[in-house]
Amino acid sequence: MAAKPVVVGVDGSEESILAAEWAAIEAKRHGLPLRIESAPAMEPRIHAYPASPATVASALRETSARALKTGVSRAEEVAPGLQITTTLLSGPPALAVAGCGSGAAMLVVGARGAGGFAAMVLGSVSRYAAMRAACPVIVARQATMAVHQEVAVGIPDPQDADEALMFAFEEAAARHADLVVVHAWYWFPSALRAPAEADDALEAPFHPEQISADAASSLSAALECWREKYPDVPVRHEVIHGHPARVLANYSARADLVVIGRHGGSGIGSIQHVLLDHARGPVAVIPCGD
Asked: What is the Cα–Cα distance from 120 to 104, expressed in whole angstroms?
C-alpha cells in the first residue's frame, strides 16, 4: 500500500511557500512523499479592466501553476531527493484545499494567503481547512524554521485525548524532541457549584492548589500507557491556571509545534480559534472522534 503523502496547499504567497518548505521537511522527517496542490482563486465578480471570463480563468490557472513551480523549487531546496508530485485543483479554494485531507497523512497550510486581508489574523482558506479537513492540519507560520527541540500538546480532558496525544508523541519521536503535555484550566469558583448553590459560591472555599493537584494526578495517570509505548520520548506534564488558548499561544513561541484536538465534525471551538489567531509558531489541529 502506498504511503499517505504530506499535502500542502500553495497560492503563490510567501506564507504558502514557507508552508511548502515546512511540509517538505516534515515529509522527509517521516519518510513520506510530498504532494503540492493549488486551487485557482474564484473569478472576480467585478473587473477593473475589460477581460472575458475565459481570459480571467486562464490567468488564475497560470498563477496557480507558477505557485506550484515555486513550491516544488523551494521544497527541493530544503529536502533534496524528496518524492514530490503536484496537482492543480478546481472549485472554491477553501473546499478544494480542505478536501485534500482525504487520504493524506497531514495537510499543511500557510497562516495567510495571497487573497487575505491584513486585518484577518488567519486566512479564510486556512481556517476552513483546520475546521473541516479529515486529517491533521498544520497551520504553518513565518517563524517556523527555528528549532527548539520541544513539542507541546494541549489536553482539556486526559480521558478523551488519544488522537492528539498519539500525533504529539509521534512528532516528538520523529524530531527527537521533548514533549510537554499541557492542561490549562480557567474556572471561576461559581463554575464549580450547582446552579442552586450559585448564590453561596463566592462564600464557598476555593482551592486552586487542590484543583491543580487533582488535574496533575489525572494527567499523570493518563500518560502512563503513552510513556510505555514511547519510552524514548522525554515527556513532562504541566497544569496551569489560565485561559487555555493564551497558555498554548505562549508555548508556541518556544515549541517547534503545538498540537490541539478538534472534537466533532462541525468545526473548531473558541480555544482553537484564538490559538490559531495568536500562535507564534506552527499549530497542528487533530480531528478527534469525527
From this structure: 27
State the pTM of this model: 0.84
d(CA 266, CA 261): 13
Instruction: For strands 283-288 and 137-140, give the pairing.
Output: antiparallel
Nearest CA to 206 out of 184, 237, 185, 181 is that of: 185
Backbone angles phi, psi at 149, to 5 degrees: 60, 40
* Cα–Cα dist 140/109, whole Å: 6
Question: Quick one: DSSP state of residue 254?
Answer: T
Distances (CA, A) of 12 to 60, 121, 223: 11, 18, 42
Collapsing DSSP states into helix, strand and coil, what is residue 132? helix
Helix (H) or strand (E) holding 62: helix 53-78
Other C-beta atoms lying within 10 Å of the C-beta of residue 25: 18
Pairwise CA distance, residues 125 & 42, whole Å? 12
Structure confidence at residue 267 (pLDDT) = 52
Query: For 36, phi and psi rounded to 5 degrees?
Result: -105, 125
Q: Give the other-Cβ count within 10 Å of 195's Cβ.
A: 8
The interaxial angle of helices 14-30 and 53-78, nearest 10 deg, is 40
Determine the distance from the C-alpha atom of residue 130 to the mean position of all C-alpha atoms in its chain, rounded to a whole number. Answer: 7
Which triple of cell numbers denotes residue 214? 487533582
pLDDT digits 0-9 by tens, 172-231: 999 999 999 999 987 654 444 444 554 554 455 557 788 888 888 999 999 999 999 999
Say how far apart CA 234 and CA 240 lie, in whole Å: 20
User: Are the C-beta atoms of 104 and 79 separated by less than 8 Å?
Assistant: no
pLDDT at 34 over 90: yes
